[in-house]
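User: What would this chain look like folded?
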Amino acid sequence: MTPTLVRQHVSHAVAPRVDRSARARDWSEIQERMLVPLYETVYDRLDVGPATRLLGLRCGAGLALLMAASRGAAVTGVDSASPERLALARERLLPALPPGRRSGPPGTRARTAARLLDGPPRDAAGAGADGYTVVTVLEPTGGLAGDAEGLGDLLAAAVPLAGHGAAVVLAGWGPPERCATSSVLRVAAEPAGPPRGPGRWRPARRDDLEEVAQRAGLRPDGSGRVACPFGYADLDSAVRGLLSTGLFDAAIAATDARRVDKGLTEALDPHRRPDGTVWMPNVFRYLVARVP
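Assistant: Here's the prediction, encoded as structure tokens.
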């Protein structure tokens, strides 16, 4: 997110001039919580609990993993795109353990039955003979050109680690007309080059998630929508939170941070309330697929 608009991954062709440590902290402190309703809905639907072995791809700062662990699940998070966010996930999930340990004193399982890995999915092997029972990508996909294709490849590499019939959950933006933030996100597209350029924002498409599942050889098994409003204490928090998603990095690289900040501030103005807070209703989608 990283209740968030979730962080999206930007192509390596884009080299935005941003402070990644500050962005990661803004993600974890401001933006990531926006997706809590999505996480809760998915975990309720899949009955995530002590019997769950969960693999979280693109786990970011780890809030979704922490929520699964609090239900008793054994969680493994993988993220090779943002070491800064992964460091924050380690602070959340492994607060008192030396490197290499997976368990702690009695009564600490919800905070310590976890592994966090900076690398490809194959590094997450070791979930037991039956493999992972749930694989998640709860960072919304489909908001950047090329992101869905990359996610399909990532899932294809992770599927062999999951057991037969394991649930794979993908998340994405809902219809633009149901997401007030869509009008603000257009700031990310205007100065960022060709419409199909890698890393450039684009509106979510209706079948983004289904196309990713098909690319990875998964069988769709239901979907749903969840209201995830974006609420901020003030305009500055809104700008920082949205920038932390990474959706504006291509625009910053194509122009400069001041221009993007100015565009964001103007686009957010219609969503300001008389008390100075910022409020934008949004709907996110999720797809449940199964490992054949």
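The chain has eleven helices and nine strands. If you want, I can go into more detail on any region.
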